[in-house]
Specification:
Layout lengths: L3 H11 L3 E4 L7 H6 L1 H21 L4 E4 L16 H12 L23 H5 L8 H15 L2
Parallel strand pairs: 1-2
Helix pairs in contact: 1-3, 4-6
């Protein structure tokens, strides 16, 4: 999506009437710290190419998810990576030790999704994270058979 001509070719061939722009060049905290300009440049190229071609091709609906690294749906409740890892440990039956090296952070330290607008539209989550991790792992196991 950083290749302007490839993006134009895609829009020429596909002629979409709606576009959801969730693409981004991403990394972790370490990569973002070391290669700030590269991340900004790559993301600006993606955004400019997609948005300008959407406009040029008369796309009537464009949803731009901005800088969030994942789709804006959640419970509105904060959970640490440590807490999430313990839920995964429990769901998969892992009996080993999980360790963290806080001297080399390489990921988002915290990210809480604001679901207020979704709630105003009538949407609310139905699965709590604790049950969701278990359900996801069960689904994954079933998909392997």
């Amino acid at each position: 999506m950083t290749d302007q001509y490839a993006v134009k070719k895609f829009f020429d061939e596909e002629q979409p009437d709606a576009v959801v722009l969730a693409a981004a060049f991403v990394g972790g905290i370490m990569a973002n710290s070391l290669y700030r300009a590269d991340f900004i440049m790559m993301n600006m190229k993606i955004q400019c190419n997609i948005i300008s071609e959407a406009y040029a091709h008369g796309v009537e609906k464009l949803l731009f998810l901005g800088s969030n690294c994942h789709i804006n749906v959640g419970t509105g409740k904060e959970l640490t990576i440590r807490e999430l890892s313990q839920l995964v440990v429990k769901a998969v039956g892992f009996e080993g030790e999980v360790s963290f090296d806080a001297s080399k952070p390489d990921g988002t330290m915290r990210k809480l999704i604001d679901v207020e607008k979704l709630h105003k539209l009538g949407w609310a989550h139905k699965v709590e994270i604790e049950n969701g991790v278990k359900k996801l792992f069960d689904w994954y196991k079933e998909s392997l058979t």
